[in-house]
Amino acid sequence: MNTVDQCNFKDKKAIVRVDFNVPLDADFNITDDKRMRAALPTIQKILNDGGAVILMSHLGRPKEGPTDKYSLKHILGDLSRMLDLPVKFADDCIGEDAVNKAKNLFPGEVLLLENLRFHKEEEKGDVAFAEKLSKLADVYVNDAFGTAHRAHASTTIIAQFFPKAKYFGYLMAEEIKNAEKVINGPERPFTAIMGGAKVSDKILLIENLLGKVDNLIIGGGMAYTFAKAQGGEIGTSLLEEDRMPLCLELLEKAKAKGVNLILPIDTVIADRFDNAANKDQVDSGNVPADWMGLDIGSKTIALFSEVIRNSKTLLWNGPMGVFEMANFEQGTRAVAEAVVEATKNGAFSLIGGGDSAAAIAKFGLENEVSYVSTGGGALLEYMEGKELPGVKAIQE
Ligand code: AMP
């Protein structure tokens, strides 16, 4: 793999696409700096070689051009502290100021460019915009796995201006290595655990996984559409009525491929969508009218946990219930604990980004699994079997 280890950055300026799209509170304090910390090894490598670093990222989804709320200047102080040096800042990612600050950057120095998405050309993958960014540096490095599934100017298009000087950062390399390990050559049994709200979001993923896994566990909101499709009563639980035929199709496909597709056998129900709601537990397909399923039940926890504990490769994407509410987090917590136990027994466990990463962090188990991906959508697309434009652009 073409990583930064293949380059000596001495006296070179590297423009590095990072994913500093971190959550900020109302006072612009960073509430989770994982994505920034994840990019530090790549930055340090370039600085240690005697190179200079120009960082570019997006933050949020600004619609109207420059907006204070989405300015990367809010993270400048934290970044300077993490790197233990004063990071410079250009308040536009292209233009005279950026050009001058990049030109005057010395080895060992770091320049952060303002939010790329203040220019609509970024998301459009505009070639002229990408070329302007490319002129700031000698080498291009992509370390933003979270946006690798987007063919944006800074993640993909820019690479063509560095035909012999483009590299993956350490985070990208690690993400790709772990995703490949799971999808191409997993140790068996290989179990995928799918959850979350909607079947429709995960169809391609489930279809691709059916050709790879031994066990496919389905929990969370999406399981109720399966229960209803099989003739069960689900009350007011989440339902995608138009996906019911597809659920039956997936069950048939799993059978044909010899995949053990495991659905919940019982469910925790509530009389409203509220942590303080009245609670009960019933078998799947037996939810009373006006009640909704918000978590998997205790028999399901035992069933899922047993399969997970006996697996050698685990891929987990999506919570088993409304884990944000303390009264309905039990199923997700139990699955997380089973994944941890399997990992202790030698299994490789990859946790998809997004809500599964949030859940594992909530339970304080981040360091007890093999790898927590920093990319939600990007990892999903990779697992669906798609080529990620940001990865392809470096490999070409
Ligand atoms: P996703 O983004 O598709 O992975 O869905 C994650 C969201 O699904 C989380 O916010 C969960 O609270 C929600 N969720 C999981 N199970 C249920 C359920 N049974 N009913 C309603 N929402 C659910």
Task: Give a quick rundown of the structure.
The protein is an alpha/beta fold and 396 residues long. The chain contains 14 helices and 17 strands.
Question: What is the CA-based Rg, rounded?
Answer: 23 Å
User: Unreliable segments (pLDDT under 50, ≥5 consecutive)?
Assistant: none
Globally, the shape reads elongated
**Beta-strand content bin:** 15-25%
Count of individual helical segments = 14
Q: On the 0-100 scale, what is the average pLDDT?
A: 96
Helix content: 25-40%
Question: What key attributes describe this structure?
Answer:
about 400 residues; alpha/beta; Rossmann fold; six-stranded parallel sheet; about 35% helix; binds adenosine monophosphate
Overview of the molecule:
This protein is an alpha/beta fold. It has two domains: 4-174, 3-Layer(aba) Sandwich (Rossmann fold), CATH 3.40.50; 185-383, Phosphoglycerate kinase, N-terminal domain (Rossmann fold, 3-Layer(aba) Sandwich). It is built from 14 helices and 17 strands. The chain has helices at 34-49, 76-83, 96-103, 121-124, 127-134, 170-183, 203-210, 223-229, 244-257, 298-309, 330-344, 354-362, 376-383, 389-395, and strands spanning 13-17, 52-56, 88-90, 110-113, 139-142, 166-168, 190-194, 215-218, 233-234, 260-262, 266-270, 279-283, 286-287, 292-296, 313-317, 348-351, 371-372. It is elongated and about 70 Å long. It binds adenosine monophosphate (AMP). The site of adenosine monophosphate has 16 residues, from strand 14 and helix 12.
